[in-house]
Amino acid sequence: MKFVDIVQSADWKAEKHVPVIDAPAIVKAGEKVTIEVGVSKEIAHPNTTEHHIRWIKLYFKPENGKFAYELANFEFNAHGESGEGPNKGPAYSEPFGKVVVKLGGSGTLLATAYCNIHGLWESSHEIKVEA
Question: Does the keyword Oxidoreductase feature in the UniProt annotation (predicted)?
Fold first, then answer.
């Protein structure tokens, strides 16, 4: 078995588990670019002790490169857990992160998200870097 056999993908506008990458399509080489990644942009994903997004990872694969580079790893650790019982805790982490990067060339941003019940999900976003 390989990851390709278990990672799911869909249109984020119709599926609540797909990570959404918000980034420009074109940026200038060496300039700072803000990239946001999250789940539940169009359809709310539950955020309960029993059902939640545990983490999102963001990668960059250069256009002519062989390997992807991890840009960010966002962990969401509070889902209403409490000694009083499930969903009685004081905090709920939302599945959202922001990172600022500088890119030296064009490529693809890739994101993976993990739901504690429905597994791994992925999405991608092409980004062109101009001189």
Answer: yes
